Amino acid sequence: MNEQTFTRKQEIRFLAMVSLFWFAQYIYIPYQTTYLTFLGVSSTFTGMVLGAYGITQLVFRLPIGLCADSIGRHKCFIMAGTCFSGLASLFRIFWGNGMGFLAANLFSGLASAMWISFMVFYTNHFSNKNQQEATSRIVMFNNLGMLVGFLLSTIGYSRIGMMGICILSVCAGLLAFILSLQIKEPCKKTGEADIKDLLSVCKLKRLWLFAILALIQQGIQLTTVMSFTNQILKDLGASNGLVGLSSIIYMVSAVGFAAFASTFLCCRKGPRFWIPTVFVIVSVYCILVPSANKISQLLFLQILPGMSTGILFSYLNSEAMCGIPLEKRSTAMGLFQAVYAIGMTTFPIFTGALASAFSIHCGYLVLAGISLIGTIVSAVYYINKSRAEKNR
Question: Major facilitator superfamily (MFS) profile domain spans which residues (predicted)?
Answer without folding.
Answer: 207-392
